[in-house]
Amino acid sequence: MIFDAVQSLLAPSALLAVFIGTVAGMIVGGMPGLTATMAVALLIPVTYALHPLTGLVLMGGVYCGAMYGGSIPAILLHTPGTPAAVATALEGYPLTQQGRGGMALKVSVVSSFIGGVFSTLVLLLTAPLLAIFALKFGPPEYFLLAILGLVGIVSLADEGRLIKALISGILGLVIAVVGTDPISGSLRYTMGVRDLFDGVAFMPVLIGMFSITEMLKLTGATRIIHEKAEIRPIKREPMPKGMGKFIGLGSGVGTLVGILPGEGATIAAFLSYNIARQHSKNRALFGKGNPEGIAAAESGNNGCVGGSLVPTLTLGIPGNSVAAALLGGLMIHGLIPGPELFTKHGVITYGFILSMFLANVIFLGLGLYFAPYFARISLIPTALLIPAVCLFSALGSFAMNNSVFDVYVMLFFAVAALVLERAGFSLGALILGLILGPIAETGFAQGLIVGHGSYSVFFTRGPCQVLWAVILLLLVPPVIQIYRNHVRGAKADG
Amino acid sequence: MSQRLVGILILAGLLTLAVLLYRSTASYPAFVQGSTASYVRFLAMSMGILCAAELLLSWRRKAGSGGATEEGSKNPRRFWALLVLIVVYALALDPVGFFPASAVFLPATMVAMGARRPLPIVLTTAGILAVVHVVFTKLLEVQLPKGTLF
User: Fold this and answer.
1) pLDDT tens for residues B31-59?
2) Farthest CA pair distance, chain B
3) Domain coordinates of chain B in residue numbers?
4) What range does the domain containing A230 cover?
5) pTM, whole model, 2 decimals?
6) Among A171, A173, A386, beta carbon nearest to B109
7) Rounded to whole angstroms, how far apart are CA atoms B122 and B128?
8) Among partner residues A212, A391, A441, which is closest to B39 by beta-carbon distance?
């Protein structure tokens, strides 16, 4: 069957579809506000006229390309193309400012490739087994998964600013409360503004806090890279050593988290980044441009691609919104998720899975080839760059919901970010809280319903206990480190 | 206004927000008092306690310590010009429409940011608007604001 699938995939129309899909995905992922979900959803009616395999590989290419594409503007312009690329921006942009954007892009594309290939391999070999694991996760586990992501706040905190980082994270969670109550359906804190009924959209907030804020800061510079730094050609700067550990870590975490329905890629990227930060020998470099952080985050979010398709193809439960759109594409061709997908329709299903390997190879080739050209964006005079980025930021904020209100949200949060940042609050923690807020709240509320109002439901279930153990493992080392720093500081003062 | 004072004002504002947030949960429907209302109360309490602790630490710290983290723009004139232009642009999107507003915003901002040569300004503006038209309007069929005035 696999041999037949390979043969079908090698048809010129299928190969062309993978290529077009991957390139389109890279473009879509690279533009903040345009999402892979949007692109896949738009492609569904188009694929109706195509052969099922051609249509599916086109959508699969978009998914793979978009997940990688989000890292390009994150590294070069401090503008994450997708929420999953926020952690990449934290490390990638400082490298661009040092004239090492080419190397950062190289690390990003190689990590994305390995993460993507690993997760697709897992999907190919163990999909039905892993689907059973996904079914063990209920609301209490999702709440703890969000907490696991939020543990990253402790790592994101600058020295001596832990409390402010925690406040920032909680502020993000509070902002995420605005909108419709997930249990009662009643409106909360919307002030009668219809655009807030679905909550504060996180993409405009993300764009405002990262992109617009950075453009405002750049008004005093003539170009992105620091005046004294020189752009280093990518060919002269090899892939940094020691990345394998972090890529492996991200790939594993990404695949595992991706299997669980929800905001997988963002949690996976932050979780991988957090673990990498704690286990790095170059911890002091984090936040100042550490390629290890990019490697972990990018392999983490691309690892989710294959992972998210495990429950989609086996159980019909989409791992995330893109997988949901892909599920629509499958069903339109009469391909119903379940065992038949791997037997009766095995040629198409395996052809689709194999096409994702190809999509990863395509974006690897394109990413490596174009990295030096992309990196030259950092040399464009800010007089031309700032207006263009501001326009695309406004456009990206608008395009998510076709709402001008979201452009105002973007501006509000850009100004708020400037004030908060200058007062020492952590923007990364705020964003993390905002993104994970809905998962945390829904998991918490539904978990309490499941447990008939008893909090013990968060402690007694097997997967919950495992998650608590992981949370403690991640939380204890930074807390000890903070304590040691405090004691050292007190001794130095005394 | 010193940065320390800004920090204290923000913390005081957030502390007030935490109190209001906690009190607001009383108006939640009775059947969510044990679920979402509890969650919001937990957030409010956590934020309140942390803000109070940080405020206390801020008062104890010497003035001048724990200040700014990030450098702002080195050119305040351009900083404020950009901020004003973006605000005006955002406000103009609905009444004027996306393309006319952008056709003014792009060159105006380029000039405000220090661009002086007309050719790059015109070419960049035209290029960006063409890309937006092809990708967003034609390919992705995003309904950009058309304007209500004209």
Assistant:
1) 888 889 999 999 999 999 999 999 988 87
2) 65
3) 3-60, 76-139
4) 2-493
5) 0.81
6) A386
7) 10
8) A441
